[in-house]
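Proteins fold reproducibly. Next comes a concrete instance:

***
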Amino acid sequence: MVNTTGDRDLQSIPRKLPRWTVGVKSLPDHICIYSLDRSTLIFSCSSSGVISLLTYVSPVTYDSPRYIRSFHLFPQQTHLAIQSFLVFNRFIFLHLQEKHQNGLIYLFSHAGALECAPIELSHPVHQYLADENRLWAINSVTHSVYYHAQPTSTHEIDSVFSNIEEFISFSRQSNFLPIRMSINQQSLALLSQDRQQVFIYNKQTRERIFTSHFSAGDRMNVCDIGLFPRENSLLLKFNLLSHSTAKRSLFIHFDTKNQSVGKIEEQNCLGVAIGPNKEILMGFNLRAGIIRCCM
């Protein structure tokens, strides 16, 4: 593994250890974490829109999450092109990418009730994310990052999605075109289309506070990024290119000094999310859906 500062051999990076593993009703293609005062909710979403809801208190105790319930957002559908899956204040947010369309947004209650008619986007979006009070998006045509306020009721939905604020824009001539992003309380991280460059910005000042270039050779591509809470350490997901039918992924945790401090190597990995205590939740297809917590 090589980045801009140089790094040690992959074999010498310590492995992150599993804390617990739990089964879910359907495949966890997308995982979203929603923090409450004294516990954390896990929303697992399959590619057909089946939600499994679980809760846990702390990953440090090794106690498995408690299953709450499951429900189907689209009972008549067997497969959906889910581009983004979010949970915030009172809504479940799904961004679907349909053929020959810019995409549709669906908003459900946390119990799975549809809250409004689908919202048709005026432009294609790579990804949506939510922080404490805003919805962030990457416009795949203008290569800009923008945000909305979060609706707190169904009456606010139309006005919220008609008002956007641009955060930053990149020209087509730029050697950095954002394709994936991650967010924490203070910062926004962007992964470039070349799958090697990462920029991190202060959300308040819009100042770029981190730039790095990650290269892993011909057999690995960076396919996603995550920011850990309360700091700017990064989790990078690399897809390993091989002739095997099993999809292999490598996750590397880089600290704020851009040094690798932990790794996870897995097969058949699906959705991934970082929890409030810096735990990493990973969904798997192991003939059935499971979620594993590593730290």
